[in-house]
Amino acid sequence: MKTWHYATPDNQQRQTTEDALPGLVQNGTINPNTRVWTAGMENWTPAAQALPNLFAQASPPPQQSSTPPPMSGGGGGGGFGPSLKSHDVDYEVFGDDMQIVEVELDPGETVIAEAGAMNYLEQDIVFEARMGDGSTPNEGLMGKLLSVGKRALTGESLFMTHFTHRGGGGKRRVAFAAPYPGKIVVMNLKEIGGSVLCQKDAFLCAAYGTRVSIAFNRRLGAGFFGGEGFILQKLEGDGLAFIHAGGTIIEKELKGETLRVDTGCLVAFAPGIEYNIERAGNLKSMFFGGEGLFLATLRGTGKVWLQSLPFSRMADRIIAHAPSSGGRSQGEGSVLGGIGRLLDGD
């Protein structure tokens, strides 16, 4: 079933399914002069020309400019076809250290998510694995393969899952769970400049229309010693995006200031922040201070998100203390527990 995009009188962009078009024409949402576009069309076209069967009684309007309408919203510019306005979804976050975000969808609305992130969904919501995030609906096969190749560099799944409310009425909900202890951070991309850079495994889900891509850090110091290497994840759009990080999350706003943090504790930063890696003090401090050889240095104006417990640090501690890996058990606190392990051959 095709997805159609149409422009509102104030140059916002909306989308709908093909079977919902007659109802939108009947209630006046789409009129003969409304500009529409769907995959396979070269340009935005008046609805009366693109959908003549729905306007059998109406005379075709005069030919308009073939230039796509200037849509408002983030979108992020380069790489987009018609600039896609993100769906306006509602949400609620449940839990404390193992959180779930429940996204509320109106009919026709879609949320995109990493493969395997879904926890539960209500009736009328259907899901489909697709190559890409759907932010470039007219993208060809080669473009999709290139996007998939970039996602493979970050270690993410080659596909993203699209959850869409296909019912006739009423709100429906789909929930996504955090993969490890920590917090879910809700970001309104429109309010932070239309984009954000985050660690490559932070993305959880986002409103349809959000572009999920990668960014290469061009600074050698950040590339070799920054924990996340040269590759960061980039989210662009004008809607809500949800990311996840470990432990407690703190949001700081820099106003032309400099902030130095442990390289693994950096979760995300907004446009206007310069990210680099610098030496952690003198040689004595670097080797014996216990804070690592390098620190991430953030400068500029904008928001920064930090985490108290990077997943890699937590995993290292678990492995180091696991008896099967040569660690020493410290938690059972019972002679019977030790005897039981002896009997089991441990």
Task: Briefly say what this structure is.
The protein is of the alpha+beta class and 346 residues long. It has helices at residues 21-26, 47-50, 141-153, 220-225, 283-288, 311-321, 335-343, and strands at residues 3-7, 13-17, 35-38, 45-46, 90-94, 100-105, 110-114, 118-121, 125-130, 160-165, 172-177, 182-188, 195-198, 203-207, 211-216, 231-236, 240-246, 249-262, 266-269, 273-279, 294-307.
Give a written overview of the molecule.
It is built from seven helices and 21 strands. The chain has two domains: 3-55, 2-Layer Sandwich (Dna Ligase, domain 1), CATH 3.30.1490.40; 90-311, Double-stranded beta-helix (4-Layer Sandwich). With 346 residues, the chain is an alpha+beta fold. Helices cover 16% and strands 37% of the residues. Strands 13, 15, 16, 18, 19, 20 and 21 form a seven-stranded antiparallel beta sheet that branches. It has a six-stranded antiparallel beta sheet with strand order 9-10-7-14-17-12, with no helix packed on it. It has helices spanning 21-26, 47-50, 141-153, 220-225, 283-288, 311-321, 335-343, and strands at 3-7, 13-17, 35-38, 45-46, 90-94, 100-105, 110-114, 118-121, 125-130, 160-165, 172-177, 182-188, 195-198, 203-207, 211-216, 231-236, 240-246, 249-262, 266-269, 273-279, 294-307.
